[in-house]
Amino acid sequence: MALGDSLMTGVSLVAACAIMLIAPVIMIADKNDSMTQSSIQTATTNFTNNILTTGSITQENYDNFLLTLASHEIACDVEITIEKQDVNPVKKHSGDENIGDGASTIYYTTQIVEHLPFKVNEGDKVSVKVKSTSETIFSQLTGADSKIVAEEAGMCTYNGMN
To answer: Is residue 124, in this structure, part of any structural domain at all?
Structure first.
């Protein structure tokens, strides 16, 4: 056996060992990202559905949602948007047209959080988006731009009756 053959065999063994060690770690990290993605999507859906069916965002619900996200040990940005339909839009008659029928006001996360509990009325549109701001282990190992993102939106069905 020549020196070149021994060197090639050694390099092959090192490469095989590296693949046998690194590949499972990458697969586990990918599986962990998938489970985290699913869990964050579920939490976002539950939080949004709670808003849509109860007609409000309470401090307790908001804090619980943030704690659920924090339990995954990744940094996240939460964007909440509520488009409130104007109850009494100004109507100006211009010929056969009513101007102002679709009047609405849009509230964003900081405005909503400053005024908790925030009331939402039937017909208002609610959108919640969560986006990770930190790299996951999978993205660190592979260099992939892997972000955890969850979105949920809907129209409030709460009509003030219980």
So the answer is: yes
